[in-house]
């Protein structure tokens, strides 16, 4: 890939990630490679249960055969409403082998009405579930329901042959919350996934013999980084039970949101050698803490750009943390309101291009047309995605994330970026995390962790660094921040708490 010549230096020299060729074009082919090369290696472990690569592929073939008999074909969508488990992995690989797309949801955490909405919106004809949730599944979908375990632990042969699957086939449909509050299903392809999971640094150095923790909700796109990133590279996935710390403690690689990572005890994770975070802003203090012992990556990118499309390897003692540079075969443009490139150091909106750009929203062509545009810099049919993230290029050629366009608020008539206020507070001594919210047209408030953080010192630091209108009027300390089921900070919960003290 090459960016067309453009008069702006940032487009010519900064926007394009390196070229790299993934070893496999299809996710399930990468898994099958390891099933042949190391059939008896443990692919995944969940408490006392485990499954080898050979058994994983064998069971997936059996389930794929059942799905095909039920009428599932390439291009179809299959609901995968489960909880973390080994059968969950079997189902994922089975659906991919058919060229179909799985639609993941945690059946215990999502209300039945929302599960039904997702099932219908994605156009699913079949629902896969665990045996224990079959009754609940019947209340969610009036469709063919298959129990995954019925295809497992069988020693008989499988005559089913994997179908020919084009790399641009949708691998899964991931539902985001959307700015309207209604779910939007993002279609992520095999090409999208292999590009980030099978090239450096997105592969995180995972290889046979390494253990990777599986901590995140299956409905969160970063869980694909854990699950598929491990299985595509011959590692062993350690699926968490109730104790998240226990799974992380035995892992060589930990992938998490900053909020989840902040809940883990680093000193109990003595095996960890690589840590990657994304999904929300990361405090530099958190990167420095883990970076003392591990290779630490900070990534950025919405679901629509396939997990992350920029990554930064934090350098211990560097004193700065950003979101780095575009990942291989991807581009990032910092553009102004007229979609013209911003100069180095100027703030603009980040647009993402290249192989990371997903196939749009399921059943929503209007929203797809609004957010996915023709890429004028790559041309030749390429698309770019409007992330609504604000950023700027540094003189060192890296990207700084400066919040979101929908994170800008007006306070006393001035425009304020809430994430920028939080980053300043996190620089105050003793503050580990900060979240800033708008209470009313004149008032900001912030929540700090840990509960013992010195509020007066933090406020004084903010007053030295920020204009008066951006200094939070209220500071609340908590031992830890409340999280959503996807492991991000629950801002609705925090806003309710702040309004009670405001």
TrEMBL record:
Record-level Gene Ontology MF annotations: phosphopantetheine binding
Gene Ontology annotations of biological process type: amino acid activation for nonribosomal peptide biosynthetic process; secondary metabolite biosynthetic process
A Pfam family matched in the record: AMP-binding
The organism's place on the tree of life at top rank: Bacteria
Gene Ontology cellular-component annotations: cytoplasm
Domain AMP-dependent synthetase/ligase: 34-361
Positions in coiled-coil regions: none
PANTHER family: FATTY ACID SYNTHASE, NONRIBOSOMAL PEPTIDE SYNTHETASE
UniProt protein name: Peptide synthetase
Source organism per UniProt: Stenotrophomonas chelatiphaga
């Amino acid at each position: 890939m090459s960016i067309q010549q453009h008069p702006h230096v940032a487009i010519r020299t900064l926007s394009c990630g390196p070229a790299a060729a993934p070893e496999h074009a299809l996710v399930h082919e990468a898994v099958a490679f390891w099933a042949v090369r190391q059939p008896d290696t443990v692919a995944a472990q969940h408490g006392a249960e485990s499954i080898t690569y050979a058994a994983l592929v064998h069971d997936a073939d059996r389930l794929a055969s059942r799905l095909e008999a039920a009428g599932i074909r390439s291009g179809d969508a299959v609901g995968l409403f489960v909880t973390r488990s080994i059968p969950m992995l079997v189902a994922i690989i089975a659906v991919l082998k058919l060229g179909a797309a799985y639609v993941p949801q945690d059946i215990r955490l999502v209300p039945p009405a929302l599960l039904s909405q997702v099932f219908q919106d994605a156009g699913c004809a079949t629902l896969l579930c665990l045996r224990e949730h079959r009754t609940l599944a019947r209340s969610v979908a009036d469709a063919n329901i298959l129990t995954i375990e019925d295809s497992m632990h069988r020693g008989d042969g499988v005559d089913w042959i994997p179908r020919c699957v084009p790399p641009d086939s949708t691998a899964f449909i991931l539902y985001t919350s959307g700015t309207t509050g209604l779910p939007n299903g993002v279609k992520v392809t095999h090409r999208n996934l292999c590009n980030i999971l099978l090239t450096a640094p997105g592969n995180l150095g995972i290889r046979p013999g390494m253990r990777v923790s599986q901590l995140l909700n299956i409905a969160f796109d970063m869980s694909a980084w854990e699950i598929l990133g491990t299985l595509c590279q011959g590692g062993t996935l350690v699926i968490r039970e109730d104790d998240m710390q226990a799974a992380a403690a035995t892992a060589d690689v930990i992938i998490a949101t900053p909020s989840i990572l902040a809940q883990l005890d680093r000193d109990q994770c003595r095996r960890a050698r690589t840590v990657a975070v994304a999904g929300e802003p990361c405090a530099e203090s958190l990167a420095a803490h883990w970076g003392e012992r591990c290779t630490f990556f900070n990534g950025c990118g919405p679901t629509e750009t396939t997990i992350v499309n920029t990554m930064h390897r934090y350098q211990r003692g560097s004193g700065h943390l950003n979101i780095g540079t575009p990942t291989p075969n991807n581009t990032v443009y910092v553009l102004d309101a007229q979609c013209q490139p911003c100069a180095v150091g100027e703030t603009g909106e980040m647009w993402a291009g290249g192989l990371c750009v997903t196939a749009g929203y399921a059943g929503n062509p209007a929203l797809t047309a609004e957010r996915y545009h023709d890429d004028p810099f790559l041309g030749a049919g390429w698309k770019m995605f409007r992330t609504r993230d604000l950023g700027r290029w540094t003189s060192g050629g890296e990207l700084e994330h400066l919040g979101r366009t929908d994170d800008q608020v007006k306070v006393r008539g001035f425009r304020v970026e809430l994430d920028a206020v939080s980053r300043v507070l996190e620089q105050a001594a003793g503050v580990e995390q900060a979240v800033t919210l708008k209470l009313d047209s004149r008032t900001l408030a912030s929540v700090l962790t840990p509960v013992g953080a010195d509020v007066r010192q933090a406020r004084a630091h903010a007053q030295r660094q920020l204009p008066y209108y951006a200094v939070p009027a209220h500071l609340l300390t908590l031992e830890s921040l409340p999280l959503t089921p996807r492991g991000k900070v629950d801002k609705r919960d925090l806003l309710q708490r702040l309004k009670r003290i405001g």
